[in-house]
Amino acid sequence: MDKTIKVLVVDDEPKICHLIEELLKMEGYQVDVSFSGIEALQMIKKCNYEILLTDLKMPGIDGLELIRKAKEEYPEIRAIMITGYATVNTAVQSLRYGVDDYITKPFNIFELKKAVKQTLYIRQVAMENKQLLKDLKKANNALNIHKQGLVEKVQKTGEDLTTANKALVQRVSELSIINEISKAVTSVLDMDVLLNLCLKEINEKLKVKHSSIMLVDEERDELIVKASQGYRSRQILGETQRTNEGVAGRVIEGKKPILVKDIRYDNRFNKSERPDYKTKSFASVPLILEERVLGVINVIDKASGESFCEADVNLLCTIAGQVSIALENARLYKALEENCFNMVKSLAVTLEAKDYYTSGHSQRVTEYSSAMANMIGVPDRQKEILRHAALLHDIGKIGISELILNKTDKLDDSEFETIKSHPATGERIIKPIGFLKEAVHHIRNHHESFNGRGYPDRLGGEDIPLLTKIMTVADAFDAMTSDRTYRPARETNEAILELNRVSGKQFDPEIVDAFASSEIIKMKSNLETCY
């Protein structure tokens, strides 16, 4: 542990302050404490703290205002909110005020340590990435200066004009390619889209027949083909190999590119071991970020029939540097998305934990929905949206009284209207969170009916999106097969009969048929038969 990492703990309860202080000192951090937000701001001005842990409710200025003011002055400081007042409004405000993590009291010691360590790690990566971007800008400026120098030299020198002009055109072309690919990939944060866009640009700009990107799976010690374009692209997608095998394995091990100009005369490649290998020339370059190898980019055969040369490899290595940064940006963005989603999901879990009868409901609805999505062939991106929507579909109930939610008698009209408000309330809760925007309308519409008599918008038929239709069936099935305050759980077969009975009225018949024949339902039914 780096002894120079400085932590400030702020809480108007001295016991909690000193408890956290002792815990973090045991981890090797340098820890200061403060019992008020006003004092903490003065301390922050005097000492360069890497991370701030603060309570929410405090006299003077509260934790959110403290974090806001601290980040205005010192944007690189990271903040963790520790509070016993866990509400949806608090969570949403925390995101808006720049809180990096959110821990509820009473807190778990190990979760606190883990949150501090992870927040510091994300801070370190962000700062290092910022420095990398500065270095890249500096390098690009140097390239532009060099380019200008070449132009001036060509203007002043008439000797060897044809050769010099050809070299200049080639260099400008390379810079243009690097610039275009850089602009294309650095703005993309979805990993699959990023990889395929990268290969599309490489195939077009370098005029190659086939390209692929293999990423390292450190847990399995394997390289996995994550993207491929050109001939055999579909066949090899998802293929794996050990990181110490093949040409790509040599690139990973040596952290250097490999160029094969003509496979027939290259002793490093035993073609007799791969008689199906039809290529003549190929190159493989590493994707490296801070000495860490992320994977490799492979290009196979130029469209012109010429062999790859050293200039091609050098250009590809420069492109690989841009792609490596984009990959790390996408990974960090995904991690931030997951952290934010987990914060909101924890609120949904907290809601279900208040009621024994609905505990685990959202998780089961997610599992049923995912099983149906896999069976129907929903694209991966849509499956991720469905997972988010299913896990959070009942988040709107967090604002409904437990007396209504757990009522054993029939709800009166006013109470039923309150219950019917939870889809729209859920939409309002999730809407401010940008990366969940595609899940919002599924949360709002998960009580719509196929015949148009649902709520809140009375959508029907094809006006109801496919993902919503899937989720409504999964939601209804789990509700029927779970114990409720007003009735016991139904058997699987009985619940399926009920779904079939209202098929075409409440639910899309095609979705009901797919659900009834899915493997997860068969397994559930078989388990009930065994017991």
List its salient traits:
single chain; 531 residues; alpha/beta; Rossmann fold; Beta-Lactamase; 3 domains; 6-stranded antiparallel sheet; 5-stranded parallel sheet
How would you describe the overall organization of this protein?
With 531 residues, this protein is α/β, with parallel strands linked by helices. It folds into three domains: 6-124, Rossmann fold (3-Layer(aba) Sandwich), CATH 3.40.50; 157-330, Beta-Lactamase, CATH 3.30.450.40; 354-530, Hypothetical protein af1432, CATH 1.10.3210.10. It contains 20 helices and eleven strands. It has helices spanning 14-26, 37-46, 63-73, 88-96, 109-156, 161-186, 191-206, 233-236, 246-254, 310-353, 361-376, 380-392, 402-405, 413-420, 422-430, 437-444, 466-480, 492-501, 509-516, 519-530, and strands at residues 6-10, 30-34, 51-55, 78-83, 101-104, 208-217, 222-229, 240-242, 258-260, 282-289, 292-302. It is globular, with a radius of gyration of 29 Å.
